[in-house]
Structures are given as C-alpha cells and as structure tokens.
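Dear colleague,

Thank you for sharing your sequence with our group. We've completed the structure prediction you requested, and as agreed, I am returning the results in plain text so they can be pasted directly into your records. Please verify that the sequence below matches your submission; if there's any discrepancy, let me know and we will rerun it promptly.
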Amino acid sequence: MDVGGIGRALVALLLGLVVGAAGTVAHRAVPPWGLVLGGALVLASVVTLRAWGGLRVVVPFVVGTFGAAFLLAGEGPGGDVLVPEGDGAWWVWIAAAAVATLVGCLLPRRWFRDEVGEPHDERPQALAAVDEGPGAA
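Please find the predicted structure tokens below.
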C-alpha cells in the first residue's frame, strides 16, 4: 500500500505529536535520561522520516513535536502544570530536540538514496584504469 504525500505528512505529524509528548513527559520523569532518550527519539524519527519520505515530511514532524511540547508546557484546564514555570530542563529538552532535528536534516543525502539493484563500483576512476592496464579502453 502506497501512502501519498498528504498521507505521509499526516503520519509524520502524528509521529511528531507522540514524540513531542513523550519527550516532554520523559524529561521531567527521569532526569537526565529522559532528555537523552527524548533527543535520541527525535533523531531516530527524523532519520526514519528522511528515509521514508525525504525532507518534506520532516516539516510536519517538527510542527507536531514542538506543538505538543509547547502545548503540554502550558497550564491545563484545571490549572495543573506539567512543566513548572522557569524549568530549565524544559528548555534543555527543546534545545536537544532542535539540535537532534538539525543533525538529522544535515546528514548526507546519499545516505537516504535507494539504489537497490543498481551496481556501482566504489573504486575511483583512476584506480579502475590502472587495474585494467595499458591499452584497455
């Protein structure tokens, strides 16, 4: 089953909402490991999304991730707060998520190319000519 561009964007947005909520909760529940695991989850998600749909599906993921994080950082309907005001760890979580996203986006494009079935020679052209010897064309 092939998912179209809009379907991929919706899946990426949903994944972003889940990752943002999980990271926001985890950074408070198990410090400092929640920050580390949240950042790793963001990086793994961005790499997976790039392999699945390219950079264009990373944008809805980022919207979902940071949207969930900022929504959960606000005051709830009953006045409850998940992230207390002035919580420095929350800002570290946001920075870690941003850095992990940036790292995932800056990885070389060739890592995400699908070249199944296409043979390619890893040897540079100069070495290939030397191996074939003189007179080979």
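Summary note from our side: The first helix runs from residue 5 to 29.

Kind regards,
the structure core
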